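[AMINO ACID CHAIN]
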Amino acid sequence: MRPDHALDLVVHNPNRYPEISVAELRRWLSRLVGEVEPAAASLGVRFSGDRLMRQANRRFRGRDKTTDVLSFPGEETPEGRHLGDILISLPTARRQATAHGHSIARELRVLLIHGLLHCQGHDHEADDGTMERLEAALRRRWLEAAP
């Protein structure tokens, strides 16, 4: 990130999930965005329960089930490029962390990387594997030091 450019990063944890350290995630995510999308002016992240996630997935994707992460790419604004908004279901992330045998902190970072790539316009359901390769590279670089 350029020194004269501050990222407006909003992280909401309205349900006050105790596993989420907003300050820690903000620091990590700010560095990540600074590397992969240095021109971004803003990004929003919200943690939800399965019920809200199911409603959002039904409304925006036509899929009546919960999911782990939804991304809503942003656009240019008078303040600069809004990279987008990421919605993460914490209960789903908990289940996935347990299933994968790693910490919830690591799972949240996995989902943030995935969501960030979608905000950049990548689509693993329609591309030739580009997003998968980018995600694997980002995981290697950004998750090695994560718990």
